[in-house]
Every structure is written in C-alpha cells, then in structure tokens.
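Internal tracking record. Fields below are filled automatically when a chain is submitted to the structure queue. Please do not edit lines marked as system-generated. If the sequence contains nonstandard residues, flag them in the REMARKS field before resubmitting.
Queue: standard
Priority: normal
Entity type: single polypeptide chain
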Amino acid sequence: MIGLPQEQRRMMEMSLEKVYAYIDSHTDVFVESLVKLVKQPSVSAKGEGIQECAELVEKMMRDTGLSTKTLHEEKGNPVVYGEIKSQKSDRTLLFYDHYDVQPPEPLEKWMCKPFSGKIANGKVYGRGASDNKGNFVSRLKAVQALLEVAGDVPVNLKFFVEGEEEIGSPHLEPIIKRYKDLFSADAAIWESGGTDRRGRPNLYLGLKGVLSVEVRARGASRDVHSANAPIIPNAAWRLLWALNLLKDKEENILIEGFYEDVLPPSSEEIECLKNIPFEEEETKKELGLREFLQNRSGLEALRTLLYQPTCTINGYVSGYTGKGSKTVLPHEASAKLDFRLVPNQNPTEIFQKLVRHLKRHGFGDLEIIKHGSTEPTRTPVNDPFVKLVARTAEKVYCKKAVIYPTSAGSGPMHLFRNFLSYPVVSAGCSHPKSNTHAPNENLKIKSFIKGSKLIATLISDFAS
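SYSTEM-GENERATED OUTPUT FOLLOWS
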C-alpha cells in the first residue's frame, strides 16, 4: 500500500481485519466446501468424474457470486470460467486453477479412500486436496469473505479452472486463443504454491515445459514360452535397449541436439538462487536418501533442479508382473516418459529429435506416441507484480518470502505469460508434506485458512 494516504491505508487495514475475522469464524464451512470438492473424483487420465466435477466447480462459483460460463473444445474437458466485476477499479486479477487430479494409485498405500475427504490430524486427506482443489477453494472463499464484509471486491476478478492440467492441457491452447479477450488481465496468480518447512511463503515465477510420450515395442503376435528366446524377438529387451540410448549414467541426455537451445539463467536469477534457503538435508531425510544424484548439493543442486532439462522414465510395462514366476517371452512392451524442458526448448522440436534419434540408431520400428506438452516460461524477477506479491505474502505470514525464479514443475503457464503477456506468480496454501501426486495427499486446515487470508490481502493490495 505504498503511496496511499495514511487514512486510506488505515481504512483498508481495518477492513482486512474484518475479512480475517469472517474467514476464521467460517473455517468449518470453508473446510466443508473443500471436502465436498475432494469427494468428487475428477481423474483426467481416466476420464473419471470430469463432467460432474466441472458442474460442481461452476456451482461453487455461482454460489459465491460470480457469473460463470463453461467453455468447450472438441474432445477436451470443460473449462469453467467465472468473473466478478468491481465497482471501484478497472484493474483485473486472474486466478488459474484446475479441477482435474492425478490417478490415486497405488490404492493400498492410502490410509483412507482416495476420494473420502477424510479429516484427521488437522488435515483434509484425499486426491486433489493439495493439487489443486485446496488452492482453488481457498481463493474462492477469499472472494466470499470480501463480498460478505464489504459488499464488493476491490478489483475485477477472473477464475480460469480447467480439467486437463494433469495430462498436459492438450486442448487448452485453442480455447485461450479463441477467447483471448475473455482472459485479458493485468496479472495472474497460478495454481500452485505454499510454504516451506519453516513456514516461509514460497513464490514461483515460472515453470519448466514438459513433453509426455509413450514408446512401444512389439515382437511376435502373442506372448510365447520363454524357451523360444533363442529365435523369437523379446519386446521387453528391445525397448530396454532403445531406452538406453536416451540417457547415460552421468545423467546426460544423449538425443542429438537436445541441449542446443537451452537458455542459461540470467545473473539476476543466479543472485535470486543464492537467497533461497534450500532445505536439502530435510528433503534427503524425508526421502530416505544419503545424497542427491551426482552428489550435488547447495547452489549446484538447486540450479540443477530448476534449470536442467530432464528425461524420466515414468513407468515400464511388459510380460508377467504377478506373484511367483511365469516363463514367458513378452510380445510387447511399453514405457511412459516425460521430458522437462527449459527456455528456449520447444516440445514439438524435442519430440521430432527423439523420433529421429531412435530411427538413426536402428529403432525406427518403435511406436512413439505424444501424449501432451507445454512450453517453458517465466516472469522476470524484477517485475512489479512479483514485488507486490512478495510484500503481501510477507505481511500475512510475517516471514520473508522465498522467491524461486522458476519451478521444476510444469503446466500451461506459457499460454498466459507468453501469449496473453501478463506477469504470473504462483502463490498458494500447500505445504512440504502434502504428498502431492502420491498416496495420502493432504492439506493442513490451518494452511488452507491462511491461504484464504493471503488471497484476500493480495486482492486488496492489488487494488492499490
């Protein structure tokens, strides 16, 4: 609120105190809304519960006071759009969220049913509790609190909630381009974010790109007895030999031309990295690791995490995987991989390089399927909106914000940052032990409520 008259600042602070009081007094009701959304399955990889969840998200928006519409692209999951206009300001803040979630498997690792929304230990458990239904509901409830206390919102607000983020948002780009004017804004808050182990708010200014592919090898027309191994091709071995051509033991990606467009971090970003309290010992302890890959540590490990492109095998399926043994020679094998990309790598070009690489080395018979992709992007460290969000977070959490110039994760942020051309910052209410994408995903209720206060304060500060 720099530059505002003292009396106006005082009135805004008094109003926020009332908003905080409203949020605190409605904690149980807010949590009920989150639990209801978590109970609704919405697994985009399987197409499970998508339409029902989109309808629930739209109803929650309307009940809050937003005008809504559902946007469709052929074969794509619905995008739910909501907005509310301010009587006081022409400025517009957009919130990007997604209602789809990752598959809950392995089911046997959960302490409760994945879509139960169980409350225990001061947390809400369930797939999507942290990623991303918790952040979405906390933002919606911040709007509700502002409307109930003040009868208006300080700035125009837009909500963009999609249903394909967890599968690479394959149908999002046409919607963004078709409704470009609808998604115009001055700045955006991204779906992820939260605090670290010491309660410091973490802000992320960008995302890596991602390319998700599946590689399939085939041999005979059916599985055969393994006694035929001397003369019958083994699809499992063939796929393994192909995968061995992609990366060496030193973690170098071997695809020809893979690194040629990589843009190194700027001097400002390197300085920013030096100020990040990288919690490497806590991370290694939680994961049961003695050391990170290549024994990296400190600034080197952090820089590698955020700025190095990757090639990861996500899963490998072939032959018999049940109990005991079965002497079988698999006739097919498949592996799913993802490539995390950094500026200025292009996922379409990387896919083409992958296909050429395998063909050049004698594996042109493999089937290579592109499942989805997003481009890398980031907002400059010195952008005024970054500074505003950092000041707001520090005010709410009473701790200095940790600013990450980019994130190791991926998403369609480039459509908002690169195409729509406004600054984007990730800020939210997750926590380090939320088990995102893993069994027993959860969100602390205290973090959830604090997140609502953060967003309410940010909306107020953005108006000034």
